[in-house]
Amino acid sequence: MDYLELDIKFEPRDPWSEIITVELADLGFDSFVETEEGVLAYGPVNTVEMDLVKTKTLLSKETSDFKVTFSEKVIPHQNWNAVWESDFHPVEVKDYLTIVAPFHSKENRKGMLVEIQPQMSFGTGHHQTTWLMSSALFELDSMPAKVLDMGTGTGVLAIIAENLGAKEIVAIDIEDWSVENAKENAERNNCQKINVYCGDVDLIQNQKFGLIIANINKNVLKSHMKAYSESLEKGGTLLLSGFFESDVDELIEFAEPFELNKESIVSKETWAGIKLIKQ
User: Fold this and answer.
1) In sequence order, what E strands does the chain have?
2) Cβ neighbours of residue 142 under 8 Å, at least 6 residues apart?
3) pLDDT tens digits, residue range 60-112?
């Protein structure tokens, strides 16, 4: 599958590069790399909605607040890994964790070591929301026995959960290439307790989890909230991310009728995460 790369530059860079990432995630783009001037966005050529990108996002606007330029090019499928290798650097999450790729040295790394070959999937740890969810997993009082990683991407959060003691992890993604990538990364990290499935939230019917992790955009999280509540054990934890600090109050209010109450909020560079408990 060929991928479209958008090289977007903002002046000034922040907070506009974070905002465009959220906008593009709703229009078919599924992988992002931050740059000094903005962001590189990647999406399958046959699914990105470029007409809407050029008319309905920040790319169609220029105000006194910022200037934006962008260029686009098609990356053949076989060159995808080479693109990632040029941009993917080790990620440290506090002293808890270091995420590396197969081509990185594993010497002198902090905390748990997780090796990820990103390929076409989201979740290398570079994005603020993956960083926030990784940190949140380490800061749980204990790791529940059964965990759901919804929108697993590379599988990095599922891998961390197993390494922290989860006995069974269900990892789900709507993209078949993410499913294959998550399976490969689970094997790469010698994981034995991760089951990866292609599909959506309907796959979790009649299952119960002590912990649900969902790092997806705000609208998807809202559409899934009822299913998360029904599948979460009483007293269980729901970790949400994939949205901005400005969305936090809306999501907390939306979750309350489903007996999901806010316990804590975390943030990093305008992105946010929420920890909720099932009552």
Assistant:
1) 3-11, 31-34, 38-44, 67-75, 91-93, 97-100, 112-115, 146-150, 168-173, 194-198, 209-215, 232-244, 260-268, 271-278
2) 165
3) 887 788 899 999 999 886 555 566 666 678 889 999 999 998 878 888 899 99
Query: In this predicted structure, what is the pLDDT of residue 125?
Result: 62
pLDDT digit string (tens) for 116-139? 886 655 556 667 889 999 999 999
Q: Which residue has the tokens 């490969």?
A: 184
* Residue written as token pair 């997993």: 137
Contacting residues for 256 by C-beta, under 8 A, at least 6 apart: none
Q: Respond yes or no on whether the N-terminal peptide bond of residue 102 is cis (omega within 30° of 0).
A: no
Q: What amino acid is encoded at 110 in this protein?
A: K
- The pTM for the full model equals 0.76
Domains in the chain, CATH or no CATH each? 3-78 (3.30.70), 128-278 (3.40.50.150)
Report the alpha-carbon angle 86-89-93, nearest 5: 160
Question: Which candidate, 196, 192, 65, 185, places its Cα nearest to that of 120?
Answer: 185
Nearest in space to 214 (alpha carbons), one of 176, 256, 171, 175: 171
